[in-house]
Amino acid sequence: MRRNKLSDFVDVRRSGMIAMKLDEGEAIVDVQICVETDDVLLTTAMGQCIRFPVTDVRVFQSRNSMGVRGMRWRTPTR
After folding, report:
1. How many angstroms from the chain centroid is the CA of residue 20?
2. How many CB atoms lie within 10 A of CB 47?
3. Which of 2, 9, 50, 77 is most buried by its number of CB atoms within 10 A?
């Protein structure tokens, strides 16, 4: 997950723009415009979720960097 200033994406060329680095097999799932008073809700395929203020995610200074881990979880044991 990562947070950028919207102004970083004002002048997008026809050829596109690199928004962030991704490792092989990774993909951008969703992008939302948010304000300082919003909350983030991350949900896993197993139904686990975490909610926190958007201000807890730092603003990245460069589009050419990777995001940060939003949540770490283990596969439940039975």
Report:
1. 10
2. 6
3. 2
